[in-house]
Specification:
The protein has a 3-stranded antiparallel beta sheet, with no helix packed on it. It is built from 1 helix and 3 strands. The protein is mainly beta and 66 residues long. The radius of gyration is 13 Å and the shape is globular. Helix content is 12%, strand content 33%.
């Protein structure tokens, strides 16, 4: 299993950033190569990406939210 981590500082209140970051369906608006994300339950997401012309799909599970 892969783990991806990335950090960025944004100049907004913590609650604003958290609320935006948990709107997974909006990720394709600002993430390259992401075609769509569908939240299938409280902790399960289905991702679809097109990476260098190759379609990739996977399930992701939220294991911890801080």
């Amino acid at each position: 299993m892969s783990t991806v981590e990335r950090y960025i500082d944004v100049n907004v209140p913590r609650s604003t950033a958290y609320n935006q970051w948990t709107q997974f369906e909006t990720f394709p608006q600002f993430m390259d190569n992401i075609e769509h994300i569908r939240q299938e339950g409280p902790t399960t997401l289905h991702w679809h990406a097109n990476i260098m012309g190759i379609d990739k799909e996977w399930e992701a599970r939220i294991t911890e939210q801080l």
